[in-house]
Amino acid sequence: MARGGGGCCPPMDLMRSEAMQLVQVIIPTESAHLTVSYLGELGLLQLKDLNAEKSPFQRTYASQIKRCGEMARKLRFFKEHMSKAGISTSTQLTEISLDFDDLEIKLGELEAELAEVNVNNEKLQRTNNELLEYSTVLQKAGEFFYSTQRSAAAQQREMEADQSGESSLESPLLEQDMLTDASKQVKLGSLSGLVPKDKAMAFERILFRATRGNIFLRQESVDEPVTDPSSAEKVAKNAFVIFYSGERAKAKILKICDAFNANRYPFPDNVAKQLHAVKEVSAKISELKATIDMGLAHRDNILKSIASGFENWNRLVNKEKSIYHTLNMLSVDVTKKCLVGEGWSPVFATTQIQDALQRATLDSKSQVGSIFQVLNTTESPPTYFRTNKFTSAFQEIVDAYGVAKYQEANPGVFTVVTFPFLFAVMFGDWGHGICLLVATLYLIIQEKKLASQKLGDIMEMMFGGRYVIMMMALFSIYTGFIYNEFFSVPFEIFGKSAYACRDPSCGDAATEGLLKVRQTYPFGVDPVWHGSRSELPFLNSLKMKMSILLGVAQMNLGIVISYFNAKFFKNSVNVWYQFVPQLIFLNSLFGYLSVLIIIKWCTGAKADLYHTMIYMFLSPTDELGENQLFPGQKTVQLVLLLLALVSVPWMLIPKPFFLKREHERRHQGQQYAMLQSADDSVVSELGDHDVSNHHEEFEFSEVFVHQLIHTIEFVLGAVSNTASYLRLWALSLAHSELSSVFYDKVLLLTWGYNNIVIRIIGIAIFVAATIGVLLVMETLSAFLHALRLHWVEFQNKFYEGDGYKFAPFSFALISEEEG
Where do the coiled-coil regions begin and end (predicted)? Predict the structure, then answer.
């Protein structure tokens, strides 16, 4: 294929990948960093790793990469705190005045300051939470002591009233003791605090068992969850007060409290001290709250100052990290004064790369310039197609199957048209097409805004394929006009129907009573077919035959492209022993069937094409009778059958023998000097390994078996692939019938009721079914079937897809991956 244009950037040519070259660059050490930076901005050089045998720690710039990793960690630390504080980063990228070393110092200072603020804030928050818990304990324990004191005073008054003077025989002995001898009363100790509510019952049981019941425990639930000082999380807790006797009991209780994360707080003995403690705690809480607010304001100011430059700093750190990673791929010269790199670049980018090297030399004030030279190689270069935002999605469809081999014909050129068209054949309805078009036009109009936003997975896929969906919608509108379906309803858009009723009794349910009264409907299916008894047989016949015609045409296109591939690579073996017999075999059978379909449409004959094709194989010499469509058809069929039979051994036998002979000639020295001067079929068929080792034995059996498999695959595939295209008919019919069912059985049925509620419900169900089933599920189904037809039926005729993508060192690609 001739490449047009001149200069550094010739016009985009998607048919063949860009011409590539293996280049070597020798860069002085003092200008290496700036040179790689300029090459990253250019993004047209894919460097090879010349230090693959070295571990990351053994490479020259390992320490610099470690610095970049540490700075990236600090930036992640900042981002985490900004997201917690709800502070968003500025998306505007500006020129950075700081250099890398100054930025490293600044990030270190900011991290230290922010860490110090966080530590102080955590200490203050912990103290504040402890004081809040203490306040809760004072409140709950105070209520308990107050209620207990009141009940004790009441009991005391009752006892004094009942026992005025001498004790009765019925009064308890201990009570008499206590009343008579105050010195025998035991002084009890107390502990108060908070315990998590979910541990409260276990806490109580363990205390009872450990002290053998010699305690008095009172618990009360706290109304609202409190913030635990240790975990800083909201926890539902119970306030408790424990009365005990003796130091041993106290030691056991303290250990149990620690085990159950029960926070203990002192509770004063008398009421005066309690009131004083409550006032003191409240004052401290107020002071701490003001201090914490000031600390948070200071932290927010630090984070806002970080946010203003965060994106720029992040971009600089990522850029520096990628530069040092790239420098580690270069080999160090023995003098250690220069770096040597090898890589692939497009031929058109030679001048641009040389300019970048020269600019780097001048800007770094290096006394020695960089050297750029093209290397000769037998390696297979990477594949590079220069796509735009329209063609990139179609190219991704092809690349998902396999990346094109270097400079082989690219199916993406044809996919731009054939993929949306085959989708539309299955999806044809111009009403549904308009819905898809409106949705995708919104994505296209808002693409600048949506491109900068983070979308969900499904929305991201739809946005990436917005131009594919637009083409699918446009072709669906076109095929919808051909099928004459608008949500399954026909319209007389291009004129009146060609048919009319013979008399009023003929009705609309049959075509037998219709007469042709006008010219044939100018475009698409005549609307009178819809709703008639003959609608399904007519549309079935039309769509099935149309599917075969489209399938045979696309498969022929694939075989023709294989011819252009063979001519481009100067592979005459594939032209004469692959392209020619394949073209003959396919068209002797299914090309002939396509011609019969067209003749039958043009003549209106009633010949049975199934019968014709079957007996073309079973009884080729029998008379055709009423199935004859043109004079001499029997002779033509015999010739075509003979050609199909001959083409099978034509594909199978000559090619292995020709390759064997070519191999022997090469090793006898007749065509040894320049491999390129020989027929390039040797290179493509025998492979790189055979080129590198001239004494490799030619495995004729392997080549023959490979050719046998290829021949059988094509012969059987010609039948199965043609049948596979009938999915166009099946899915088109399914889409049409589903659309008709939703319209007739949902919308029209509910519209027949004279009730506004039923009508609204009917419209809602119709809209939901149309969107959910026809515009989402049917779209996905037709998309996947169109994808299969391209990957299997079309691309296997010519596409090898065993190449690898051109992956240049580019800052733009790195930022896209991180975004």
Answer: 93-134
- Nearest CA to 412 out of 438, 388, 430, 394 is that of 394
- Taking alpha carbons only, the member of 395, 460, 366, 530 closest to residue 33 is 366
As a whole number of angstroms, the distance between CA 712 and CA 700 comes to: 18
Fill in the DSSP letter of residue 489: B
Where are the chain's structural domains?
Answer: 390-493+515-668+701-797
Pull the structure tokens for residue 217: 């425990």
- Residue 708's SS3 state is helix
User: Is pLDDT above 60 for 227?
Assistant: yes
List the structure tokens of 672.
């040894």
**Tokens found for residue 395:** 């190219």
Query: Burial letters for 606-638: b for 16+ Cβ neighbours within 10 Å, e otherwise?
Result: ebebeebbebbeeeeeeeeeebebeeebeeebe
Helices and strands, counts by H and E, the chain: 28, 13
**Residue 532: pLDDT band with limits 50, 70, 90:** confident
Structure tokens at 644: 């199909």
**Any alpha helices (H) in 197-334, and if so which ranges?**
200-210, 247-259, 271-327
**Residues forming a β-bridge with 495:** none
8 Å CB contact between 734 and 488: no
Lowest pLDDT segment from 1-15, 632-646, 708-722, 768-782: 1-15
Dist CA 783 CA 773 (whole Å): 14
Copy the structure tokens of residue 378: 């037998």
Asked if residue 324 lies in contact with residue 65, where contact means CB atoms within 8 angstroms, the answer is: yes
- Alpha-carbon span 701 to 682, nearest angstrom: 17
φ/ψ region of 407 (left if φ > 0, alpha if ψ in -120 to 50, else beta) reads left
Q: How do beta strands 189-196 and 237-244 pair? A: antiparallel
pLDDT bin (cut points 50, 70, 90) of residue 95 is low
Q: What is the pTM of this model?
A: 0.79
Question: In what helix (H) or strand (E) does residue 612 lie, and over which residues does it extend?
Answer: helix 609-618
